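I have been asked to look over a protein record a colleague put together. This is what I was given:
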Amino acid sequence: MITTPVVVICFVLGFLFVIIEMFHPGFGAPGIIGGILLVLGVIFVGILTSSLFIVLIFIVAIIAVLGIMLTIVLQSAAKGRLSKILILKDTQKKEAGYIGTDDLKYFMDKEGVSLTILRPTGIADFNGIKLDVITEGEFIQKDKKVKIIQVQGNRIVVKEII
């Protein structure tokens, strides 16, 4: 038998699970369970009251409460405590030693050793950093000293040091 406490428990647990899902987004299990409980609550209200008007009022109230909760969560995600959890604040700046793939000019004029035969592309080691390199067309044997003479984006041109 469906009673009023069952309906209240469905709504309370439903909202609770949806709030949990909003603040800890992930797999979606709490959100799905919360949604099912809210739908069951509406169905139970319809069975208890046999009134379509009351069911519609409950649906509108649920949508309004979920909208208010979503607004609060989005506000928290933008500026509040939740933003500290969801938004990465660390940056990889050049001053801290980070080098992006677009900033390979750091290697300009560095000397290293070819790890593979460069015909004309291959791999060279520059102080423990392995880079894909290309020559200007000539072949360079393995374990030869090379120097970076040009950097364009992620294209690194080397020549053999004789």
User: Anything to note?
Assistant: Residues 4-86 form one domain. The chain has two domains: 4-86, 95-160. Helices lie at 4-23, 29-49, 52-79, 81-86. Residues 52-79 form the longest helix (28 residues).
